[in-house]
Amino acid sequence: MAILEAEHICKSFDHTEVLKDISFSLEEGQVLSIIGSSGSGKTTLLRCLNFLERPDSGVIRVCGETIFDGNDKTTLQESEIRKKRLHFGLVFQAFHLFPQYTALQNVMLAKELLAKEQPDYKARKREIHEEIRVLAEELLRQMGLTDRMHNYPHQLSGGQCQRVAIARALALKPDILCFDEPTSALDPELTGEVLKVMKELAEQKTTMIIVTHEMAFARDVASHVIFMDDGYILEQGTPRQVFEESHEERTRQFLSRFTQG
Amino acid sequence: MELMLEQVPIVIRSLNVGFLQTLKLFFVTLLGAVPLGLAIAFGSMSRFRPLSYFTKIVVWIIRGTPLMIQLLIIYYFPGLVLGKPIWGGGESGRFLAASVSFIFNYACYFSEIYRGGIQSVPVGQEEAGLVLGMTRSQIFFKVTLLQMIKRIVPPMSNEIITLVKDTSLARIIALQEIIWAGQAFMKGSQGISGAIWPMFFTAVYYLIFSGILTVLLGRLEKKLDYFR
């Protein structure tokens, strides 16, 4: 069964249609890359999945459970949305780490706040805190940041910040981890270290949706590629189908720079 | 000159008493206006239009009229116009009226500083909190608040230093703060009259106190330097 199904998602800002009838699905453990020119709606699509924007219509299902239905107002309640968001993690282009917390505290914060809602929190307070710290340290180790755990974001490079942000998203164990142009704010050297950990996550069968301009990365790591243009999904399929056997002229035009280079 | 030297201890004692009242008004105002300002800031940022318009009009009126007039209205209006002297007589009544005026006035100024501080925290911080499943109040208290405090320390220091000296306006309703105490020696008090120098002396009190505050607020600013 598909872990994520999106059907007929539409979204307008004022009178501009940004998403036009977007449908796709994603299997567990797969990596979906969304490519396309700036303004094609890629980021808006990710933001809709994370409930940072509300689609005007359409249906989103995670593991068969309908988490959003444009025709069913009961799926739009604020308190419900907060829980549904936890199906998804989101890594931003500009990191958005919390500057007043160390790398480790950034990873632990949300998990600790959620733990307070557990019924046995008061009784097991210290134990729970310890579990969360161990998990956060393990995640930061995976990201190659063991010696940076107690640094504040402004003391870290962009690449290190983005890896902290990935660990922070992973700490909540989302079903699907989304990346919104995770390397666009980084220089080529730092881009490499971030792509490397993302590749490792893909090898560990982490379900991911990656909006990216790194074409080589999309081709090599993704199991599925979507090409968006002007709010539509123009083409989707395996990387081979999209990159080498594209049907649409527009896709070939977009990719020409990359394939020729 | 000899006469003046004998007068010094008398004047100092009097000024000390007045300055105590000044300090009391200062701290009470701060204690009340800091939280009230936050409530007003949320009011003016509210998505509920009538509330935000109402708040903005109140802030406009309070910031748009002299504090001295507000003091007079708040102290005299209930008694003279409504026939209900709610403040009671004597120094304690005057202090109460002055506190209310100052808290309200300063809360309005603070609210605008807070609003600027909150709005200057990048929207990405809130979005990051939201996608991590945090509630809006968790985001405010755990993420936004400290970043806002860091940004508002310099403008707040400015207002707080101004407040030290603004307390002297309470003289208009005869609150016995330090200016009142100094002025008494011009009119004649404790055998001293026509003396202007006690007034000059009051400046030293203000100067020392605002010096202490400057150092303390500077330390707070340094303390928040650990993040950017």
Structural summary, described in words:
- The complex is a heterodimer of chains A (261) and B (228).
- Chain A has 261 residues and is α/β, with parallel strands linked by helices.
- Chain A has one domain: Rossmann fold (3-Layer(aba) Sandwich).
- Chain A has helices at 42-49, 78-85, 103-115, 125-142, 158-170, 188-203, 215-221, 239-243, 249-260, and strands at 2-13, 16-27, 31-35, 57-62, 65-69, 88-91, 176-180, 208-211, 224-229, 232-237.
- Chain A is globular and about 60 Å long.
- The relative contact order of chain A is 0.17.
- Chain B has eight helices and no strands.
- Chain B has 228 residues and is mainly alpha-helical.
- In chain B, 31% of the residues are buried.
- In chain B, helix 1 (2-45) packs antiparallel against helix 2 (49-64) and helix 3 crosses helix 4 (90-120).
- Chain A binds chain B through residues 50-52, 82-83, 85-86, 88-90, 92, 94, 96-100, 109-110, 113-114, 152-154, 168-169, 172, and chain B through 122, 124-125, 127-135, 138, 142-143, 146-147, 150, 226-228.
Short key terms for the protein model shown above:
heterodimer, A: 261 residues, Rossmann fold, 25% strand, B: mainly alpha, MetI-like fold, 80% helix
Question: Rg of chain B, please?
Answer: 21 Å
Strand order of the largest sheet of chain A: 6-7-8-3-9-10
CATH class designation of chain B: Mainly Alpha
Identify the CATH homologous superfamily of chain B. MetI-like
Distance between the termini of chain A: 38 Å
Number of domains of chain A: 1
SSE sequence of chain B, one letter per element: HHHHHHHH
- Which CATH architecture of chain B? Orthogonal Bundle
Q: What low-confidence regions of chain A span 5 or more consecutive residues with pLDDT below 50?
A: none
Q: What value does the Rg of chain A take, in angstroms?
A: 19 Å
Structural class computed from helices and strand pairing of chain B: mainly alpha
What is the CATH topology classification name of chain B?
MetI-like fold
Q: What is the CATH topology of chain A?
A: Rossmann fold
Count up the domains of chain B. Answer: 1
